[in-house]
Amino acid sequence: MTKNDILCIGEAMVELSQSPQPDQWQLGIAGDTLNTAWYLRRLLPASRDVSYFSRVGTGEFSQRMLDFLAAEGIGADHILRDPEREIGLYAISLKDGERSFSYWRDNSAAKRLADDPALLERALSGTRIAYLSGITLAILPDEGRNTLFKALEQARAKGTKVVFDSNLRPRLWPDTTIMCATIEQAAALSDLILPSFDDERDYFGDADPQATVARYLGCGSGQVVVKAGGAAVHFGGAEGTGIVDGLIREVPVDTTSAGDSFNAGYLAARLDGAGIEQAIQRAHDLSRIVIGHRGALVRQAVAG
């Protein structure tokens, strides 16, 4: 086993989600790449290491995050504590199962997660899979993004596979032109990219999921698997091309973490030896359970 089987890179925050009881809220720790790490930890055997790379503060909620990672079996050996910043906070509002978010993250310590190139290099050293998202990139300043890209290039040259979820969030970017250019720059470094078609259509103008596959392969991605909200999943690249159709669709209670859990289900299945089509089916089955419950981390989906 390598030093880290999977290292997830990004921002974890305090999550406020609506309770089933009126006017009551539940507090948790979540964030797109952390959600994927959490599901991976439950889907993979204990012999496989799942770690998280970020930056946190020194206050109570940052400590809660570190305590949470420890309790959930997610490694945090390379997370630095920032004396000047704290972790961010977000609240989920729901209407007919669809989510909207309110964020308080302007002073998030995670914006400085790439400030120490040597630490980043050590964290990636020996890692089998490095996983990040468009949100990871969006919160970083230009210098931080460049540092992260360089570290990923170096790690990839030594055998690390880079997995990227484009996770387009234009509110986090100066403008959509910068967002799209940076996403495609990350795609060029990725052995696997896991975009969501609705976002790709809206911001890149893709006519259909196959166009998304072709565009990212043209950027240099090794393999592309396009999520489509329960519709047919298109994939293509070095490991094969095809469509997985006939997937069971659910009416969502809460779509939070739908894509994050899909990504975890897909990666866990591939690490378990499944082929692409079987991995997509297993990922979809997990995601449709997740969207039947409130909040990002659904223990019922990975119980047993």
Automatic annotation (TrEMBL):
Name this polypeptide is given: Sugar kinase
One GO BP annotation of this record: DNA damage response
Record keywords, A-Z: Kinase, Transferase
Gene3D superfamilies: 3.40.1190.20
Domain Carbohydrate kinase PfkB: 4-296
Cited SUPFAM superfamilies: Ribokinase-like
Endpoints of the signal sequence: none
Xref: InterPro entries: Carboh/pur_kinase_PfkB_CS (IPR002173), PfkB_Carbo_kinase (IPR050306), PfkB_dom (IPR011611), Ribokinase-like (IPR029056)
Annotated Pfam families: PfkB
GO molecular function: 2-dehydro-3-deoxygluconokinase activity
One term under GO cellular component: cytosol
The organism's place on the tree of life at top rank: Bacteria
Keyword Cell membrane: no
UniProt record similarity statement: Belongs to the carbohydrate kinase PfkB family.
